[in-house]
Amino acid sequence: MQPSLPLFYTFNFYLFGIVAIVAALLFVTRKSPVAAAMWLVTTMFALAALFVMLDAQFIGAIQVLVYAGAIMVVFLFVIMLLNLGHPSEVADARGRGWKLTAGAVGVAMLAQIFALTRVHIQPHIPAGYLSRQIEATGVVAPIAGPLFNEYLLAFEVTSVLLLAAVVGAVVLGRRRTATDAG
Amino acid sequence: MLAEALFFSAVLFTIGVVGVLTRRNAIIVFMCVELMLNAVNLTFVAFSQVYGVGGQVFVFFVMTVAAAEAAVGLAIIIALFRHRQTVNLQNVNLLKG
Q1: For domain B2-90, is the CATH number 1.10.287.3510?
Q2: Distance between CA A17 and CA A49 in Å, rounded?
Q3: What is the model's pTM?
Q4: Which residues in chain B are closer than 8 Å to A143, comparing Cβ atoms?
């Protein structure tokens, strides 16, 4: 990172981080699935802003398009399709034992991750290298280079994964008719 | 900003874990998993500032896997709803001993 960041940058970074965390808290505490989905979309938008501020502008755009745009729309579509708004589905929090367990697990994980983040990290690339690279070659080129060279095999395998997911979703979502043998 | 980004990511991931453990609605549990994936993406992007752009490429793959997972998972939830008329995980206890 650059040694001195403008106050505007720091302020906005904290602002969007806090927005993301507050929206996530509201998301897990909402009773209605639709309200929960809306707060999750807010979290994802705030995360997209954080991505942009961390020199990942392309990832930020993809976050808005794919996560907030496509995946959450599919979630909302399923909520609407199953008509989950009615009261019997609304109150779904688990009992006291589960809540205490979840709280303990949460505190333990937070402690672990805080301990890990205090480790001194030795930078492998010079400070500000990524933003200079983006200034020189544009936003997409620094990602596209490694994606189609070093990670080409993984990229191709991903297409097989997507095909398998499409076929699986169609098979699972198909309504069984009387003519089906199974 | 690396430490702050890791802090936000840790808090978001923990919120996701707590959501998975405390909610019974299958769709909300599933959305909590998406939240955890997003938190991990934030870590990848933050570390790509000190370790090179490979982290951002990984975020790309994580998003692809998340999209595939959402498609299959929601299809499973729809099949479950057709079978049981509910998405409450308490009623899905066939494997319970």
Answers
A1: yes
A2: 9
A3: 0.88
A4: 53, 56-57, 60
